[in-house]
Predict the structure.
Amino acid sequence: MRKLSRAAIRTGAAAGIALAAVSATIEPSAAAGKSMIIDKRDGSGETRPMAQPQAESYMVNVLKDQRMLNKQASLKQALNQAFNGGGKATGGYTFRNHPVLHASSGDGQTSTTLFYFNNDANTMTLFAVGEHLKGPSTRYQITVYGQAGTDFAQGRTISL
């Protein structure tokens, strides 16, 4: 077996340090592919782009704050649907001039519906969260949080 020279070892170490520095500047969500920005309630700011685990953690905290942890399982399933590209068109609704998509999950007793739009191929923005309403038509109510002054304000009903 051949021994490496000290110069080769130093060069290898320097390259490793440089790679680590570059890796540290890459957002975790950028490395993972899809990311989600979450618009906070009533236009009070937005999060940085997050990968699915971080978006899930953030939204579970929103549910905790509102004492709605019974929606946790359906929230996770709806996030899976959104991150896997399974969102559905939401009629003619738009938000910030983008067509609105929704991802919904639930068991008939408890449901969660996420309203969001695609910024580009890898980033989406979640801006309202509600639930499916019972009845013969497809309707959703914004119950967790929404954006004041829009079709997606808290308490509003979205009909498809």
